[in-house]
Amino acid sequence: MPYESKPSSPRHAVRLALAAVGAAALLAVTPARAQEPVQPIAPHKVTNPAKVDLGKKLWFDPRLSRSGFISCNSCHNLSMGGSDNLKTSIGDKWQKGPINSPTVLNSSLNVAQFWDGRAKDLKEQAGGPIANPGEMAFTHDLAVDMLRSIPQYQAEFKKVFGNDKLDIDQVTNAIAAFEETLVTPNARFDKWLKGDKKAITAQELRGYELFKGSGCVACHNGPNLGGTSFQKMGLVEPYKTDNPAEGRSAVTGNDAERFNFKVPTLRNVELTYPYFHDGAADTLAEAVDTMGRIQLGRKFSDKENADIVAFLKSLTGDQPRITMPILPPSSDKTKRPQPFE
Question: How far is the CA of 80 from the CAs of 60, 83, 273, in angstroms?
Answer without folding.
Answer: 15, 6, 10
